[in-house]
Design a protein that fits this description.
The protein is of the alpha/beta class. It contains twelve helices and 14 strands. The protein has helices at about 25-30, 40-50, 65-70, 130-135, 145-160, 180-190, 210-220, 230-240, 245-260, 280-290, 315-325, 365; strands at about 15, 75, 80-85, 90-95, 100-110, 115, 120-125, 140, 165-170, 200-205, 220-225, 265-270, 295-300, 330-335. It has a ten-stranded mixed sheet. Strands 1-2 form a two-stranded parallel sheet. Strand 9 (about 165-170), helix 6 and strand 10 (about 200-205) form a beta-alpha-beta unit. The structure holds S-adenosyl-L-homocysteine.
């Protein structure tokens, strides 16, 4: 179906969503309606361990309580506009988040794990030069319900396939939507909810330094940083938030983050763009930045999208770059593109949206990002 023929619904005016609500707030909610605090645990089990979002099925709640909850609250998941299956097993959901906006969620099965890649914003304001989401501009932050709803929805549809890892590498900059991302991360880790371990939840950021530092104390999950260039001059062009938080400041925050992470490294993502950032000289500069640090490098062959001005580096350049890092003792891997036949690969998530404003770096979105 051509993307533009999709009819997106209008924004839904809301009852209180219990989805994505922090455990403590859920307890408070039940106390406020004169119910026992353990109701919170019951609801969490239904939502996050059985993926049930219909009060009618919650058989350990009395029917008057179910009725009351249905009247007062919502457990709505974003409606699915489209499901796609790749030949390699990757799956993609296009989800309606109202007002002509759609987001994407991707599941990537591998022999030893199943990774769900989730979106944190409708669009993105960071305007990285090579990213399809950035090209679309920014619309709004997703709510905690919309972010966690992606996990509930995918988990339900994938049963018995299992989500073992969750990465915030879909649309948007998670650390520019800190207020809503943090409770989601807590629920992903909470044994009463999804119960994933810290190293199986990864926040990927283009470098919102103040929130990297905040995350270090709030919730020390795995961190991936989209570096993509070894000098400020080049990074200013490719990842414009570098003009606000340049490389030295970014790396400093990374090493501080790593201090709280008993022997776990930070992953540095580096998209290889033909003739732009992929020479052996660039690789040597990268070595100087990362050598003897708690760092590993994930090289990402560029995934093209229709409007992009870049090309993927040729294989010999990828090999030479990788070899230079390895010879210098860095841990480096090359990411194999997954789901590229359904445009589910890194940086190809555009959400097929219309009427999206282009909000640029430096506009209110970044300045006002919540804390
Ligand atoms: N905003 C976050 C998460 C988004 S994307 C961040 O910047 O980290 C996840 C990764 O895909 C990032 O490293 C991003 O730079 C990379 N990426 C974006 N566009 C890409 C493309 N066209 N090809 C390959 N990787 C891309």
């Amino acid at each position: 179906m051509p993307a533009d023929s999709l009819t997106l619904s209008q924004p839904r005016l809301g009852k209180l969503s219990l989805l994505g609500l922090p455990a403590a707030n859920l307890v408070e909610f039940f106390e406020n309606i004169d119910e026992k605090p353990y109701r919170a645990r019951q609801i969490m089990r239904w939502l996050y361990q059985r993926y049930v979002t219909d009060y009618g099925e919650m058989t350990d709640l009395s029917s008057p309580l179910r009725k009351q909850l249905a009247e007062m609250t919502s457990l709505a998941l974003p409606p699915v506009l489209k499901r796609e299956h790749s030949d390699d097993g990757t799956r993609k959901w296009l989800l309606d988040v109202g007002a002509n906006q759609a987001i994407e969620t991707v599941y990537i099965p591998e022999p030893d794990r199943g990774t769900l890649c989730i979106s944190s914003q409708a669009g993105c304001a960071l305007d990285c030069a090579f990213c399809a989401t950035g090209y679309q501009g920014f619309n709004r932050n997703l709510t905690a319900a919309e972010i966690l709803g992606q996990v509930v929805l995918a988990a339900r549809e994938l049963t018995p396939a299992k989500i073992t890892n969750v990465v915030f590498m879909g649309m948007g900059e998670p650390l520019a939507n800190y207020r809503n991302v943090l409770p989601v991360v807590h629920l992903l880790l909470d044994d009463q909810a999804f119960g994933l371990s810290r190293r199986r939840v990864t926040i990927s950021t283009a470098g919102v330094v103040p929130h990297i530092l905040k995350l270090a104390t709030d919730c020390n999950v795995a961190l991936a940083v989209s570096l993509h260039a070894p000098t400020d001059e080049l990074r200013d062009r490719l990842v414009p938030i570098n003009k606000v938080h340049p490389i030295a400041e970014l790396l400093d925050s990374c090493w501080k983050y790593a201090e709280g992470q008993a022997s776990r490294s930070i992953t540095f993502e580096y998209v290889l763009l033909d003739g732009v950032n992929d020479s052996v000289a660039h690789a040597r500069q990268l070595v100087k930045l990362l050598r003897n640090k708690p760092a590993k490098v994930n090289l990402i062959p560029f995934n093209a999208f229709p409007e992009s001005e870049f090309r993927c580096s040729p294989q010999p350049a990828i090999d030479a770059f990788w070899q230079t890092l390895r010879n210098a003792g860095l841990i480096a891997t090359v990411r194999r593109p997954r789901g590229d036949d359904i445009a589910a690969a890194c940086g190809q998530l555009a959400g097929r949206v219309r009427d999206r404003q282009r909000v640029r770096l430096g506009d209110r979105v970044i300045g006002a990002s919540s804390s």
